[in-house]
Design goal:
Layout (H helix, E strand, L loop, with lengths): L5 E5 L3 H10 L3 E5 L14 H13 L3 E6 L8 H14 L3 E4 L2 H10 L5 E3 L8 H10 L3 E3 L6 H8 L5 E8 L11 H4 L18 E3 L2 E3 L6 E3 L4 H7 L3 E4 L6 H16 L5 H12 L7 E2 L5 H5 L12 E5 L2 E3 L2 E5 L4 E2 L3 E5 L8 E3 L3 E3 L2 E3 L1 E2 L4 E5 L9 E6 L6 H5 L6 E9 L3 E6 L7 E4 L12 H8 L7 E10 L7 H18 L12 H11 L14 E3 L13 E5 L9 E3 L9 H13 L4 E4 L3 H5 L7 E4 L8 H8 L3 E5 L6 H10 L3 E8 L4 E3 L7 E4 L5 E6 L6 E5 L2 E3 L7 E5 L10 E2 L9
Parallel strand pairs: 1-2, 1-11, 2-3, 3-4, 4-5, 5-6, 6-7, 7-11, 10-12, 24-27, 28-29, 28-40, 29-30, 30-31, 31-32, 32-33, 33-34, 34-40, 39-41
Antiparallel strand pairs: 7-10, 8-9, 13-23, 14-15, 15-22, 16-21, 17-18, 17-23, 19-20, 19-22, 24-25, 25-26, 34-39, 35-38, 36-37, 37-38
């Protein structure tokens, strides 16, 4: 029988973490205030994170820390300082998206275990092979992988796999969405998504919520996921409150622990518990190709929660409506504008029903909620949460972290000696008279375990090296007495502030030394060659110096370069590998990789020139250094970056840098069947277009305006004429002239 997977819960706040553990979560994932994909959440400060990590470990639980955003070159010093703090905190693993972050952690902070965030977009076995080479121990799977594809990948990798089982879904492939960034420089890849996919849009065939998927609920598939050997099942929701976390964790804990014979009964009970989480309508996400067809409904408002009314009255001190659901003081509401924009959230602290002050209101009551928020007229009222236990006292009572002493223990027939290597403690020695052991000699593991019982509220055992000079019988009572005597000496002679962290600053200093040496290691030609990605049939002519790039499946005698697909389902890997082989036989020696999995497919070809290109994000020189390990010769600066960030990258990059200078980039890419195709607009008149590729089944949103930015000195040019031409009059510089948030 397969081992029960880990149940992994979101912790957008310390209270959520404690609620998750109490409800039965094996682990939580949480972030600090910076560089995590949910920066809008409450998150943790370092000291509280230490306390919660210690709480988890005392109770046999785990905590994974999220550091899963893209990092600009200018931010690397701040990132490394934060990593030094994270190293001292000691989470069970670090979730990362940025290749530069991954490189820094692996090389300079090796005590931190690495998990690849879903934002890295791993979706096939070739990608998993690359993930293993990158040094990660677990991959959080791309959310748009089907169960059958998951099963096929599981058979081909030894890496741990983590999958989402519940919560809100992004419409776009993970780590690929530029929609929020295009509309206002708030990048979803940097934790600041404004959720434009949840808004109302307008087309010639009507308006609707064309890109807002229903929520994920994989409750019915828990037995199948257990059987597959998936290591971790993940609940989404770091922007949610403890009541959501507690209900969701409790439901899935019930399902995971239920015997197969009782699963149907447990499923009914779990669904009732999940109904309290106040989300959108449930779906099975991308579990099957059939489920894609029902995922997005144009008439489903993008807001989460249980709809309980519509604003009928506005006053300076609140708003009124007719309740269609029960409400209580302590419940949380969101008042959603009908266009899908962000609406204010309020907690009910004072409520009237039928002109009487009440703590509870029933369906049909005329209620008035007192608040000082700017509530939209005619807004839709959604219940997004219920009152929950205040864990403030429990949080305040979490103890400070103990000071860890690193010990070297030597055991001989005549003595046991202990030397502390990270604090000014006099060497401890206890005389012994041990006989040779006939059956059960003392071993290093048992001696170390005994010394781990520090009998102290201040000190604890850190690293321990134990050497035994022979085979002796050491009675348990005698070992206990020695251990007690040692820790008593420590408590009587050592001030806690004198204990040193022997690893403090080591990685930080080594990084600084290496980073100062980084500089371009290439010589640019007198004239930089342009690359032009052309339409497959009859494209516009490029300049005489330009190289022609074509899709790897459509390369021809005029092609100079082959572009690999950015998304390749598991069953299509052989076709892409064959297309690469055919291109190579035709004489193609330049290959453009748009996702990390492509490097695995190209590893056998030794005389080729590889370019890492959008949507594979390269934001900093350490990401460049990581890619150079796998034969990459040139990188495209991440398409979201502003001019200063591109120039900062170029100044440190050991590989040639390229700039996406013209084209219509895909803002959102999805496998879901969208209820729209063709042109559409938002409520501000910004134009877009949805195109579905019948060959791949992928739908993409393209902007009406063409991205067009000036040439940068010392940077190669890339022109994307697949969906644009030289003569487009409506252009945008995207984030090039303004800092990306």
């Amino acid at each position: 029988m397969k081992q029960i997977p880990e149940l992994l819960a979101p912790a957008g706040s310390p209270a959520c973490a404690l609620a998750a553990y109490a409800a039965g979560a094996d682990a939580v994932y949480a972030g600090l205030a910076k560089f995590n994909a949910r920066e809008r959440g409450e998150n943790f400060d370092p000291e509280t994170m230490r306390k919660v990590v210690d709480f988890a470990h005392r109770n046999g639980k785990k905590l994974y820390l999220t550091l899963n955003t893209l990092i600009k070159e200018q931010e690397l010093p701040e990132l490394v300082q934060l990593l030094e703090t994270i190293r001292s905190i000691g989470p069970d693993a670090l979730l990362v998206q940025d290749l530069g972050t991954l490189h820094i952690v692996r090389e300079y902070f090796p005590s931190l275990e690495l998990h690849a965030s879903t934002q890295m977009g791993f979706h096939n076995s070739a990608g998993f092979a690359m993930a293993e080479k990158l040094g990660v121990t677990r991959v959080v799977l791309e959310r748009q992988v089907t169960l059958q594809e998951l099963a096929d990948i599981r058979k081909k990798t030894a890496l741990e796999i983590e999958v989402f089982i519940h919560g809100a879904l992004c419409c776009s492939l993970s780590g690929r969405c530029l929609f929020s960034s295009w509309l206002g420089a708030y990048s979803g890849n940097r934790g600041k998504c404004k959720q434009p996919c949840r808004r109302r849009y307008f087309s010639k065939n009507g308006n609707g919520f064309f890109f807002s998927p229903q929520d994920l609920c994989m409750a019915e598939y828990i037995p199948q996921l257990k059987q597959m050997g998936v290591q971790s099942l993940k609940i989404e929701g770091r922007l949610r409150q403890p009541d959501y976390v507690e209900a969701a964790v409790g439901a899935y804990r019930l399902l995971l622990d239920a015997p197969e014979s009782d699963f149907s009964e447990a499923l009914g009970e779990a669904r009732a518990m999940l109904a309290r989480t106040c989300g959108r309508k449930w779906s099975t996400g991308f579990a099957t190709k059939d489920s894609w067809k029902e995922l997005v409904k144009a008439d489903s408002v993008g807001a989460a929660g249980i709809r309980c009314g519509c604003v009928e009255e506005l006053r300076d001190n609140g708003f009124g409506f007719t309740a269609s659901k029960r409400l209580s003081v302590g419940d949380r509401l969101r008042i959603q504008p009908r266009g899908g924009e962000d609406g204010p959230a309020v907690t009910i602290t004072r409520m009237f029903a039928n002109n009487e002050l009440v703590k509870r209101a029933k369906s049909g009551d005329k209620v008035f909620i007192c608040c000082d928020k700017d509530v939209p007229a005619d807004g839709l009222v959604f219940k997004i949460g219920e009152s929950f236990a205040d864990r403030k006292k429990q949080l305040e009572q979490l103890p400070e972290r103990k000071k860890a002493l690193d010990l070297e223990i030597e055991l001989d027939a005549k003595y046991l000696r202990v030397v502390c290597t990270n604090a000014p403690v006099a060497p401890f020695e206890m005389p012994l008279d041990l006989a040779a052991a006939e059956k059960h000699p003392a071993d290093a593991q048992k001696v170390s375990a005994a010394f781990a019982e520090a009998d102290s509220d201040v000190f604890a055992l850190g690293k321990c090296v134990c050497r035994i000079n022979g085979a002796y019988f050491l009675p348990a009572a005698e070992l206990k007495a020695v251990r007690r005597a040692f820790w008593e000496q420590v408590k009587n002679s050592l001030k806690p502030e004198l204990v040193m962290d022997q690893d403090a600053g080591v990685g930080l200093m080594k990084f600084r030394q290496d980073y100062l040496k980084l500089a371009p290691a290439y010589t640019l030609p007198e004239r930089l060659t342009e690359t032009v990605a052309l339409k497959p049939h009859g494209a516009e002519p490029a300049s005489r110096t330009a190289l022609r790039a074509d899709n790897v499946f459509t390369v021809n005698k005029e092609s100079d370069e082959a572009i690999l697909p950015d998304f390749c389902p598991e069953d299509k890997l052989p076709a892409v590998a064959k297309a690469i082989e055919n291109a190579y036989k035709m004489g193609i020696r330049r290959f453009r990789v748009t996702a990390v999995y492509g490097l695995e497919l190209l590893k056998a070809y030794k005389d080729i020139f590889i370019i890492a290109s959008t949507p594979l994000p390269v934001c900093n020189s350490l990401a460049v250094k990581e890619l150079s390990r796998f034969g990459v010769k040139r990188v495209m600066a991440h398409i979201e970056l502003e001019k200063e960030a591109v120039l900062a990258l170029k100044e440190r990059s050991e590989l040639e840098v390229e700039l996406y200078r013209l084209g219509r980039p895909g803002l959102l890419t999805t496998r879901a069947d969208l209820p729209i195709e063709g042109p559409f607009k938002d409520n501000r008149g910004n134009g877009f277009e949805v195109r579905r590729d019948p060959r791949t089944g992928l739908s993409r949103i393209y902007p009406q305006k063409v991205l067009s930015v000036p040439r940068l000195e010392g940077v190669f040019d890339f022109y994307d004429l697949v969906n644009a031409n030289w003569k487009n009059s409506e252009t945008s510089t995207f984030n090039f002239e303004y800092p990306l948030v």
